[in-house]
C-alpha cells in the first residue's frame, strides 16, 4: 500500500479511494492518504474481507486507476535491460518476474501475447510494489514487442532449457555486456518456435545438480542478474 501511495503522490497513478479497518497499524497509511487527498472509508473486518481477494486480508483495500503505459513509452529511454513475458499464464510467476526485474535494475517489463494481466490481484501482490517502480506495458502482438525491443537497441535473448548455448559460456564471452531484452516463455511449453526464430540467440541456465529444471521466476532471476552483473562489470 505504501508503494501505491508513493506512486499516487508522484502522479504515476491515481488512487481514487482507500478502505481500511480501524487498526493502529494502518495509521500511517491513512494519514498519507488523507494528506494526498484520497478519500478514506473506515469499514468493518467483514467488509474488508469481502473487498479483498486474499484468504487473510490485511484490512487495507485501495481503488486505483490502472497505469496506462504503452509499448513505445516503456522503451522510450532505451533501457539497457528489459524482461519480456510471452504466454506466461501464472500470475504469481508474472508478478515475481516484475519484482526480480525491478531488483536487477531492469528498465521495463513487457507482457506480450496471451500473458496474464499484469494487474491481476495475485500478480500485483507477487510484485510486492515493484509494479509501481518501472514501466510495465502490454501488447498482444508478440512480433511487434520484439521488433520494438530491437529498435530500442536491445539484443533479444530467449531463455530456453534446451538451448545449445548456456548462460555461463555467454557471460565469459562477453555476450551479456550489452543492452539485452530477456524473453521468457510459458511455464509449461517455453518459447514457441515462431518466437525463437525472431530472437538473436537462446540460452539455457546450466544445472549443476540433479534438479530437472528451474521454475520460470527462478530462471528469470538467474538470467536477469547475470545480465545486470555483466553490464555493471563492463560499464
Radius of gyration: 19 Å
Helix content: 25-40%
Largest sheet: 7 strands, parallel
Rough outline: elongated
> What is the tally of helical segments?
10
- Which regions contain 5 or more consecutive residues with pLDDT less than 50? none
Residue-averaged pLDDT, rounded? 89
Give the strand line-up of the largest sheet: 6-5-4-9-7-10-8
Percent of residues in beta strands: 15-25%
Beginning-to-end CA distance, first to last residue: 35 Å
Number of strands: 10
Summarize the structure in short.
This protein is α/β, with parallel strands linked by helices and 235 residues long. Helix content is 37%, strand content 19%.
Structure description:
- With 235 residues, this protein is of the alpha/beta class.
- 37% of the residues lie in helices and 19% in strands.
- It has helices at residues 2-9, 27-35, 45-51, 71-74, 91-103, 121-127, 142-151, 167-172, 193-196, 216-234, and strands at residues 15-20, 40-42, 60-64, 81-86, 108-112, 136-139, 155-159, 165-166, 180-184, 201-204.
- It has a seven-stranded parallel beta sheet, with helices on both faces.
- Helix 5 (91-103) runs parallel beside helix 6 and helix 5 packs parallel to helix 10.
- It is elongated and about 55 Å long.
- It starts with a helix and ends with a helix.
Salient structural properties:
three-stranded mixed beta sheet, alpha/beta, 19% strand, 10 strands, 235 residues, elongated
SSE diagram, text form:
Layout lengths: L1 H8 L5 E6 L6 H9 L4 E3 L2 H7 L8 E5 L6 H4 L6 E6 L4 H13 L4 E5 L8 H7 L8 E4 L2 H10 L3 E5 L5 E2 H6 L7 E5 L8 H4 L4 E4 L11 H19 L1
Parallel strand pairs: 1-2, 4-5, 4-9, 5-6, 7-9, 7-10, 8-10
Antiparallel strand pairs: 1-3
Helix pairs in contact: 5-6, 5-10
